[in-house]
Amino acid sequence: MSPRCGRLCRAPRAHTGSPAAGSAAAWTPSRSPTSMARSATHCPQPPCGRADRVGYVLGLGGPYHHDASACLVADGQPVAFAEEERFSRIKHHRDSRSAASSAAWCLAQAGIRCGDIDEIAVAWNPYWPNPADEITDPDLIAELLGPLGTGPERPRRLTIVGHHLAHAASAFYPAGVADAAVIVVDGSGDGVSTSIHHGTRAGLRCLRTFPFTQSLGWFYQFATEHAGLGDWTHAGKLMGLAAYGKPTIDLNFLHPTRDGYHLDLTPYGLAPEADHTAGYTDLTYYRALRHAYRKAFTDAGIPRQAPRSDDAHQSLAADLAASAQFLLQRCLISVVSTALEETGATALCLAGGVGLNCTTNGILARTPDTDTLFVQPAAGDAGCALGAALEVAHRRGDHTVPGPRQAHAFLGPAYDNHAIETALHDAGANFTTPPDIAATAARLIAEGKVIGWHQGRAEAGPRALGARSILADPRTTRLRDRINRDIKHRELWRPLAPSMLDPTGWTTTPDGPAEFMIVAHEATPRARQQIPGVVHADGTLRPQHVDPAHQPEYARLLHALEAETGIGVVLNTSYNGPGEPIVDTPADALASGARLGLDALVIGDYLVTTPPSAPTHQQHRPPRKGS
Question: Which parts of this chain are annotated as the region Disordered (predicted)?
Fold first, then answer.
């Protein structure tokens, strides 16, 4: 693919109303829609030319690649982040227009123009030949900057940041530590599939890499395909299915070693590594790799499974999933051990697509030699925009180590009451404004209803964290099954996760990392008994510990739910249907809620009753507190 195969120019997708501006400070508390309606102001900007002017770096991730995104960093701290899929409504957005709408939104959010940007950091793309440190090709510059409406204005510099370096930066700089082993594991990026870095006050230094021919991400992807669960975008299914199987299959082509792991598919027809000179973007190699994996799994006694089987948890596919998951964990434990030994650090930071594997993260969190684990919530390729911007900001001296630890992921668009009301009227929605929206929502959940919840700034990354969520009562598995079967239209064995006020009493490691619903923890007997809807078949849950400082309205909902039911926990899954990105605008929430048949929607201060066209359901009403 040519780096200039298509134009990036495209006007941003129209929003219903104007996004409410957020704070310019990093990881600061998000404001409620009500407060934003009263004060929808842009970030303060010192006059141009002043010595104390804000330094801006715009990160772009995924040009001509999947999961396009943009992130704006001001004086070394992230102030805006958006994924292109939320605007285009194309999941894992991938086309020649790249991060056009995301970048334009980031600038609008800060109230700046392209000429105010000091440097643009572009996460390196695999289809660009002969990557350099700086982009100087005028045609490529025009394509990258065209959507920003630059005219004669140009940033001072456009810098390329390597794919794995961008991932590593996204994990290290927000971790709030001065010394860390940083590990990136994904399918492949700039010819590398796994990398070990040492993060210090001086920045990041790469210590070791594993080539694309040793990809753990591709191993997991092809195991997902062979199990009949879909392509790489469905790898999370394999992780969930693993809980139902036994790791009894001998996958002897991959094994951990003293300094990492080794993968050898030559017995299954794949040419030796030295023969792969065409590069990892070559489709011939990729097809040969898929064929070799199919033969390897089949020779191990697992014929390729039928797709989308609701009884997959009772089939050989579950044993394949368990075996692949177990082997991935063993290999990563070895990589982590090597990283800690070579760096001498006790803090561990993770990013890359494999970093979204909650089960593995839970095991790594309990590694004896590690006292701190930070996993970037936008661990996939969308997070490269954040990492590229932070890496360049650090080089410029705008970001110091250690900086503040990332406390939340709410850096996306928000909508004030005017924008919400406009969307409600345009949709002809039935809505009210209850005096206490959190208490009203809690009462609906306690009655067994499944609701949509749209509040504040959108989350970064694939996990819904209480800004764009579908919520239900976790005290019963019936609602979990209804969400999987009737709303999400997916396999019944898929796990759902809890948001909670305090992990104490619910997990055996309440002090472990739980900000981003990305680390699996062992459930306590109390959790298994009282909130079975969010405890997986392996006895784990992946909690989100809600901090009232960053999510005041969501915390109020949990307190109100505790008053209703005695349990300050809610079942939380992403607000989207099959094949859809998570909703962004109020209009998205209304349309998706009607398609999915949700019982009610809470958007800002407004309660929306079920649209007449939405299907109705028999409600399960668990007992109220004290009954």
Answer: 14-44
Contact in structure between 316 and 302 (CB atoms under 8 Å): yes
Residues in the chain, overall count = 627
CATH topology of domain 417-609: DHBP synthase (3.90.870)
Concatenating the DSSP letter of every residue in 520-531 gives -EEBPHHHHHH-
| Widest distance between CA atoms in the chain | 71
Considering the domain 215-344 in this protein, what is its CATH number? 3.30.420.40
In the annotation, is 65 catalytic?
no
409-438 pLDDT, tens digit each: 999 999 999 999 999 999 999 999 999 999
With 70 as the cut, is the pLDDT of residue 36 above it?
no
Tokens 């206490």 found at: 436
Q: Domains of the chain: which residue ranges? A: 33-169+382-396, 215-344, 417-609
Band the pLDDT of 620: cuts 50, 70, 90: very low
Alpha helices (H) along 373-518: 384-396, 417-427, 437-446, 477-482
pTM (two decimals) = 0.88
Residues 420 and 17: beta-carbon distance below 8 Å: yes
Task: Give, in order, the Cα–Cα distances in Å from 450 to each of 244, 360, 412, 619.
Answer: 27, 30, 25, 9
Domain 215-344 and domain 417-609, same fold? Reply is no
d(CA 177, CA 117): 28
Which of 76, 77, 57 lies closest to 157 in space, CA to CA?
57
Distance CA 419, CA 442 (A): 24
**Residues near 578 by Cβ (< 8 Å), separated by ≥ 6?**
488, 489, 490
Cα–Cα distances in angstroms (integers) from residue 490 to residues 228, 262, 494, in the given order: 13, 35, 8
Average predicted confidence (pLDDT) for the chain: 86
- SS3 helix, strand, coil % of the chain, rounded to 5? 35, 20, 45
Pick the CATH number of 33-169+382-396 from 2.60.120.10, 3.30.420.40, 3.40.50.300, 3.90.226.10: 3.30.420.40
Average pLDDT in the 273-290 region?
71
What are the tokens at 116? Answer: 């105010």
